[in-house]
TrEMBL record:
<feature type="compositionally biased region" description="Acidic residues">
    <location>
        <begin position="61"/>
        <end position="80"/>
    </location>
</feature>
<dbReference type="InterPro" id="IPR027381">
    <property type="entry name" value="LytR/CpsA/Psr_C"/>
</dbReference>
<feature type="domain" description="LytR/CpsA/Psr regulator C-terminal">
    <location>
        <begin position="93"/>
        <end position="176"/>
    </location>
</feature>
<feature type="transmembrane region" description="Helical">
    <location>
        <begin position="20"/>
        <end position="38"/>
    </location>
</feature>
<dbReference type="Pfam" id="PF13399">
    <property type="entry name" value="LytR_C"/>
</dbReference>
<feature type="region of interest" description="Disordered">
    <location>
        <begin position="44"/>
        <end position="91"/>
    </location>
</feature>
<keyword id="KW-1133">Transmembrane helix</keyword>
<keyword id="KW-0472">Membrane</keyword>
<keyword id="KW-0812">Transmembrane</keyword>
<protein>
    <submittedName>
        <fullName>LytR family transcriptional regulator</fullName>
    </submittedName>
</protein>
């Protein structure tokens, strides 16, 4: 049995084959995405401080004052806000936990905490998982937690977890490595 043979065509005789519509749409989508990326990208930072904008946009319950022709140089309510009072370090106790395999870390850091003016209530090992060195604070002690974190160079503060062994009255410092 012999198979029939067809005459072969040369490239010029075959013509051109266009890509499928899916390929054309994909190329178009990538091109539009690239144009959008480069035209919307700016030199501005990705994160913006919106606290000032939010405060200015908050409606007031007080009626608007009558406009006057006299210009006054009195500062607005926002400018008059006094800075928060300094934290009394001796009024707060700190519990220091070591969440690493470094022997004696909690004891060494406790000495650093004492040298910064804080009272250390206890130093022990933490049996759990904490992603980064953190200052945990009980309700009402956020300012003290911020000050402790600032004193020690800790970047992370969180409210105390009431379901764990964290103190409900003291600041809790859980170490995941040496302090910088």
């Amino acid at each position: 049995m012999t198979f029939p043979t067809w005459p072969t065509r040369t490239r010029a005789q075959r013509g051109t084959v266009l890509p499928s519509p899916v390929v054309l749409l994909s190329v178009l989508a990538v091109a539009l995405a690239a144009v959008a990326f480069f035209t919307t990208r700016g030199d501005d930072p990705a994160e913006r401080d919106i606290s000032a904008t939010k405060a200015a946009a908050t409606p007031s319950d007080e009626p608007d004052a009558e406009p006057s022709d006299d210009a006054t140089d009195t500062p607005t309510e926002e400018e008059e806000k006094p800075p928060p009072p300094p934290v009394d370090r001796t009024a707060h106790s700190v519990v220091v936990f070591n969440n690493t395999a470094i022997t004696g870390l909690a004891g060494r850091v406790s000495e650093t905490v004492k040298a910064a003016g804080w009272k250390v209530a206890a130093a022990d090992n933490w049996y759990g998982t904490v992603p980064a060195t953190t200052v945990y604070f009980p309700q009402g002690q956020k300012a003290a937690a911020r000050q402790l974190a600032l004193d020690l160079g800790v970047a992370r503060i969180k409210p105390a977890d009431t379901d764990s062994d964290m103190s409900a009255t003291n600041l809790t410092l859980i170490l995941t490595g040496e302090l910088d």
